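Sample intake sheet
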Amino acid sequence: MTIESIQNEIIDEFSMFDDWMQRYEYMIELGKSLPLIQEKYKTDDNIIKGCQSKVWVHAEMNDDKLVFTADSDAIITKGIIAILIRAFSNHHPSEIIDANTNFIDEIGLKEHLSPTRANGLVSMIKQLKLYAIAYQTQLN
């Protein structure tokens, strides 16, 4: 599946819920299914700067595809990173670099987060893209 088709799936899933309480509950459920980072990667180097909560993200290449794992000490934040990892993991770095993040706006996520969580969301996206750039550079 392409990143765009995964993003469209996420948009469709969020559109099934009538209100934001249901969407938050869904995000919490997504967070529970997050591919968890190994304890050895829960280091300061893997913490996303700019997040109110602690969020650790690790990336590694597997058959020319970038695979992300993560964890957070906050349940909503864990759900947010789970959504991003679902959209971007298991894709070639160049696809991640070129991918847009309009689906975040389409599900209304940014506008329903506190300013500090919204900043954290931007920081998470930026970090995933930076990993992709770093791995793409190694492939070139």
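Comment: The mean pLDDT is 94. Strands lie at 55-62, 65-72.
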